Each structure stands twice: as structure tokens, then as C-alpha cells.
Amino acid sequence: MLHSRMLRYLDEVARSGSIRKAAERLNVSSSSVNRQIIALEDEMGVPIFHRLPNGMRLTLTGEMLLAHVRTTLKEHDRLQMHLRQIRGIQGGEVRILAMGGLVGGLLPEVMSRFAADHPRVEISLKTMLKNQISDALMAGEADIGLGYNLAETPGTTITGRFVVRLGAVVASGHPLTRFPAVTLEQIVDFPTVVGDRSMTINKIVMDAYREEGIDFRPTFLSNSSEFMRSMAISQNAVTFLSRIDVSAPDRSSPLVYIPIKSDRLRNHELVLMRRTKGPVDNAVDILDEEIKRAFERTTADTPVA
């Protein structure tokens, strides 16, 4: 970290109230500490300490600077710990359970990046129904679980919650891609494919159409998100998925997520959870954190409804 020694000297002088005591604790000379403090004051253009007969006391500017410095030092220490964990991964296994609709979107991208950084870690992914994931985690069959509206149970802990909103998902050349957002009524002019009643998607979509008073009959129903994506790509149909389900947008992506303008279309919650028992595993910790950050970035602008 740039100027880390200078910042640690400042922190220690503030704690001890004396350059001499700070030097003793840091195991350096008093003149070295004094030079760093003077250099920092010159850089800031204002005094950081009042030089008193009985020691050093922070000025108002110094108190503001110290609060920032201590936050910076904590973040630096946290980063160093994370880097040590990464360097320490020599192998191992991470087992993930996910609901079926999540295996074709953002999750594989995160797993691929992790695998590239840690080629000696074996990653396994198994799809399960919502009500099976928590039980499998508790039984030690997996390390990480991901699904919609999962509940925390004994033996598991939730590490991330993400507000997810369905949108119209279409092929990149579909007529609806001309619009930055669409209405439920615009969608009914095209063939549609909706999750069947075994999927949360079905109730969210059908309730929204009913509450808006629009007669809506899906062209296709399926419990397979892969089928829904395939129909959107090959048959120019409109399906209903979230940004996470179709991964990050880019020029090469065959699918486009379009927000839907409707107060009746409710959000739902995606939950990331961990098994709480078992040995500490750096690979699991790091992949769990990378999934969390990627999903947070993707859902950051989801409107709360």
C-alpha cells in the first residue's frame, strides 16, 4: 500500500501521544518517525499534531485524517489476508447446489473465472429443487447453495440476498430490443414461453397479467429454463427471466434482457447460503465471496417493488 509506513507511524503516534513512545513500539528511531510526520504535514499543508510540552495531540485536521487512515489500514489488512488465502489454495473441492434455472446464466461465468485463477481446485455443480438444497447442505453433501426464496435452517447460514426482477428476455435481433423497457401488453403480440406452475416465475408473471386486466395465454409452458432460453433464441419467442438468469450483457450474447414497466410484477429474492459445519476451506470462502460480489453488481440497480 502506498505510504503504508507513514500511515502506521501516524496511527501509532496518535495512540501513544508521543514520538518517542511510538518509535519504541514500532522498533524504529524517533527521528525516523518524526521525519514521516513532518513529511505528511508538508504534504497536507496543515499541522496534524499540536506539539505540547507533555506530548503530541491531534489537531482537528489530524483527527479527520486519522479516521480515514485507520479505515484505510483495516481495508489494507483485510486485502492482505484475502491475498494470503488465495496464494494458499493448492487444491481442494468446492461443491455447489443450485436451482436449475441458475445454471445457464451468471453463475457459470463466476465459476469459470474462479477455475482459471485456481486450476487445482475441483468445482462441482448439481441442480436441485428449492426444498432439497438446505437439507443437502446440512447433510454435508455440498458447501454452497443458491436458489430463490431459500430459508435459513440449522446448519446453514445465509451469506447473500439479492433482489431479482423478471424482465422480457429475447434474442438479440428481436423487435422488442428497440425499446429500453417494455410493457406487459407489448409482450402479448409475440409468442411467449413461461415457466410452468412448478416454477416461481409462473405465479409472478400470471399474477401480474391478471392484476393488470390483460388476457394472457402463454404459447409454451416448461419447467426448463434451458428450453425457455432456446425458444427465445430459435423461435423468436419472449420469455421471462432475470438478468442473473441470462448472464452479463455483451455484444456476443444471443439473449437480451429488457426491463418490464409494471407495478404488478413483483420482485423475488435470490439467496446464497453456506454450510456452517465442517472444516474451514479457503477455496469455499473465496468462491462464495466471488459469487456474492458478482450477483450484487448485477442486481445493484434492481428497483424495489
Describe the structure.
This protein is α/β, with parallel strands linked by helices. It folds into three domains: 4-88, Arc Repressor Mutant, subunit A (Orthogonal Bundle), CATH 1.10.10; 92-164 and 268-299, Periplasmic binding protein-like II (D-Maltodextrin-Binding Protein, domain 2); 167-258, D-Maltodextrin-Binding Protein, domain 2 (3-Layer(aba) Sandwich). The chain is 44% helix and 21% strand. It contains eleven helices and twelve strands. A five-stranded mixed β-sheet has the order 4-3-5-12-6, sandwiched between helices. A hairpin with a 2-residue loop joins strand 1 (49-52) and strand 2. Helix 1 (4-16) packs across helix 3, helix 1 (4-16) crosses helix 4 and helix 2 (19-26) crosses helix 3. The protein is elongated and about 85 Å long.
List keywords for this structure.
alpha/beta; elongated; 3 domains; D-Maltodextrin-Binding Protein, domain 2; Arc Repressor Mutant, subunit A; 305 residues; 5-stranded mixed β-sheet; single chain; 11 helices
